[in-house]
Amino acid sequence: MDDSITKMQLPSPAKLNLFLHITGQRADGYHELQTLFQFIDLCDTLDFIPNVTGTIRLSPVIDGLPTADNLIYKAAQMLLPYRKNIRAGVDIVLTKQLPMGGGIGGGSSNAATTLLALNTLWECDLPLAELANLGVQLGADVPVFVMGFSAFAEGVGEKLQRVELDTPYFLLIKPDCHVSTGQIFTDKYLTRDTPPIRISHALTLGGHNDCLDVVRKHNPEVDEAYLWLKNHGGAKLTGTGACLFLSFENWDDAEQVRLATPKKWQSWVCRGCNTSPTHDALNQWIEQHKK
Ligand SMILES: C[C@](O)(CO)[C@H](O)COP(=O)(O)OP(=O)(O)OC[C@H]1O[C@@H](n2ccc(N)nc2=O)[C@H](O)[C@@H]1O
Ligand SMILES: Nc1ncnc2c1ncn2[C@@H]1O[C@H](COP(=O)(O)OP(=O)(O)OP(=O)(O)O)[C@@H](O)[C@H]1O
Predict the structure, then answer these.
(1) Looking at residue 265, what DSSP letter applies?
(2) Three-state SS sequence of 187-205
(3) Nearest to 99, CA basis, from 213, 238, 230
(4) How far is the CA of 1 from the centre of ligand 2 (A)?
(5) What is the pTM of this model?
(6) Among 44, 74, 141, 174, the one annotated catalytic
(7) What EC number(s) would the UniProt record show (predicted)?
(8) What is the ipTM of this complex?
(9) Per residue in 16-48, is it b (16+ CB within 10 Å) or e — as a string?
(10) Tens digit of pLDDT for each residue in 249-264?
């Protein structure tokens, strides 16, 4: 096999929850949400190098995260039964930029990127909807990354309606702490009864993040960063945090506030997009490798 022909490099972007309403809780404990997902052009990079040993190898190992628990490895394992050629394996190299536990979905994005890449490289040829169904077993945020479009989401985040959103610049801040999604969703003071809204309302009036107060209560660093960012505009929390963001019409204004951000918090200026950069790159790869 000629690796130079078949290897694939894909970006694995982050997402923002432009708002996050919790409308109820299912019998299995998972929460019913309404949220507006938008991708940003801040990405990890994944390299996929097919091998003929039938094995999945992932490098480098992330500190404190055994390979077997890495969502990339789990996603690849999940696709094994669908390979056309049972000797097809893969070496995967992860270049991590997205902060973990930031509420920007890095792990879920990596899982989705892996499903998309191997679906092509291993010629599984599953439709996107089927890949998304597999993906939701790995995490509630995986389906939106598999489908690859901005979306109004319901259910646990897997019922997606495609939307076209403005594509502003965002200042993204990561307070120096790691928020546990499980801890936030089990807090007894979490609001779980926000009345459902219509998609038209979501697109015109937006919404809020029901997790904000609980996240601030458990994480003083988020509280401090939120109060700081609020001085510069409508600061928002993404997912269960820890990341906060603010939108701007142009890059210069966003960069100016970033430069003033206390150095103890990581910060980025990035841009919202309506199509996942993973899909753009995958489509380009497929175009270049048409038989
Ligand atoms: C907060 C969001 O990021 C919004 O996009 C997602 O809903 C969270 O997605 P995620 O990190 O992929 O979450 P998962 O790995 O599926 O779940 C982590 C834990 O959070 C809780 N959880 C998660 C999602 C949800 N809708 N209800 C929940 O109660 C569950 O206890 C679960 O064990
Ligand atoms: N490839 C991966 N990259 C990052 N985290 C991973 C990966 N695989 C498994 N994980 C686990 O998933 C946890 C959540 O990571 P992630 O980066 O998705 O956080 P998050 O941005 O808070 O996610 P979300 O917004 O979906 O709640 C990590 O703490 C880690 O234990």
Answers:
(1) S
(2) CCCCCCCCCCCCHHHHHHH
(3) 238
(4) 33
(5) 0.95
(6) 141
(7) 2.7.1.148
(8) 0.94
(9) bbbbbbbbeeeeeeebbbbbbbbbbbbbbebbb
(10) 999 999 999 999 999 9
Reading the block at residue 2, the tokens are: 């000629």
Note whether 99 and 243 are within 8 A (CB). Answer: yes
Complete domains list, the chain, with CATH: 3-164+276-288 (3.30.230.10), 169-273 (3.30.70.890)
CA distances, 128 to each of 76, 135, 147 (Å) = 16, 10, 6
Helix (H) or strand (E) holding 255: helix 251-260
Q: What is the pLDDT of residue 275?
A: 97
DSSP 69: G
Write down the residue that tokens 């190098």 correspond to.
49
The reply to whether omega before 68 is within 30° of 0 (cis) is no
Does the Cβ of 185 fall within 6 Å of ligand 1? yes
Decide if 15 is catalytic. Answer: yes
Residue 4 predicted with pLDDT over 80: no
Write down the residue that tokens 């050629």 correspond to.
Answer: 85
Q: Tens digit of pLDDT for each residue in 13-67?
A: 999 999 999 999 999 999 999 999 999 999 999 999 999 999 999 999 999 999 9
Q: Residue positions in the annotated binding site for ATP?
A: 99-109
Measuring CA to CA, how many Å separate 287 from each of 120, 126, 281? 12, 18, 10
The residue length of the chain stands at 291
- Residue-wise burial string across 87-118, b where 16 or more C-beta atoms lie within 10 A, e elsewhere: ebbbbbebeeebbebbbbbbbbbbbbbbbbbb
Ligand 2 atom 19, closest CA: 101
Give residues with Cβ within 8 angstroms of 281, minimum separation 6: 9, 10, 11
